[in-house]
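If it is no trouble, can you show me the amino acids of a protein and the tokens describing how it folds?
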Amino acid sequence: MSADAAGPAAGPPPPPGDAAPGWYSLDPQTNAQAYWDGQDWSKTRHWRGTGWVEDSAERIPAGTAAVYSSSYAAITRPPRYQSTAGGPPVPPASPMSGSPPTAGNQRPAVQTTSGLAIASLVLSILGLFGIGSLLGIIFGYKARREIRESRGSQGGDGLALAGIVVGFVTLVSFALVVAFWIAAFATIRSASSPLQTQAARCQSDVQAVNGALAAYHADTGSLPIPTSQWNSASYLSNYGLLTTGTQGDTFLAHAPPTSHYVIEYDSAGNVWVAPANTFELSYTSGQDVAVNGNACQAAVTG
């Protein structure tokens, strides 16, 4: 009987050493494998990024299985049937050559961890004032896309996902810290603003009292002498010489208030400040604005 009359060619001989049935790598570059059932190559599968996917659940007829080469060149599956002129369709004869490598349900021959996935996790952990977190998120999404498109040649999807999650956490944490410090700074500034205003008014009142003393001296040839020791009862009367003056002259519009600071003077022309509702019996240089520029600030803050 001729080869044409006998039908399709016989399948390939068994692998050397009667290898056990199982999956065998065909092409590491395309991540293709074929299944040896002990007699023939029955089916094929490819790595799809997250797992193996069989190309077909149907058995490949003997002699018409995928074409396998020992150099891992490629694997192709010819049509199940081919028409011949003047006769019924018959399975094509396409014998396999070569023997499969070591058996095993193996993943792609070579898989590397994505560098972007590693960089994503590292940058997200470091944070770097939010910049690292943002870059970690971007690198993480890009790494996951490249891993899916690598058909199994790249790994590290878990690292990329962790980088994205940690990146969002550190970015939100940094934003909260910044918001807290902005709020704290605004609160401190708003609290210190009234004190600064009162300190400025204190310095202005000190200048007014010094001016009134100078005007009094120019008008009378001497300096006013407080009528009694400084206290809450004598405060206004001690300023009476400056607020009424002599012969109807007014050297000072009114005595400085005592609600935030107290301004006192003596017959030597010294002027000093004290905290609110506090009256000093004598001059102290540390409370003299001319000697201590922060005397008003100290008096206002108490």
Observations:
- The mean pLDDT is 75.
